[in-house]
Amino acid sequence: MSVAGESGRAQQMRAKAQEMKDEAARTSDPKERKRLTDQARRLQEQSEQESRSGGNQNMDPM
Fold it and tell me: How many CB atoms lie under 10 A from the CB of residue 57?
């Protein structure tokens, strides 16, 4: 996968996390709000890891 593909994937993950945060803000059920907020946080963390790795996980150093 290319570096551009990796950053695009991270960007999609961040967008989905934001959607979940927005949905959590709209819901009146405290359990659902917490579930969505936690899931959004995990997705945000994954996207940050994806961005930091830069897609270099599969590159051969030699």
Answer: 9
Taking the C-alpha atoms of residue 13 and residue 44, their distance in angstroms, rounded to an integer, is: 7
19 in Cβ contact with 44 (< 8 Å): no
Q: Per residue in 4-62, pLDDT tens?
A: 555 788 889 999 999 999 999 999 999 999 999 999 999 999 998 888 876 555 545 55
Q: In whole angstroms, what is the distance from residue 21 CA to residue 15 CA?
A: 10
* Spatial separation of the C-alpha atoms in residues 14 and 54, rounded to whole Å: 15
**Sign of the dihedral defined by the CA atoms of residues 20, 24, 26, 28, in that order:** positive
Q: Is 44 helix (H, G, I), strand (E, B) or coil?
A: helix
Question: Could you tell me the pTM of the whole model?
Answer: 0.72
Joined tokens for residue 9 = 């994937």
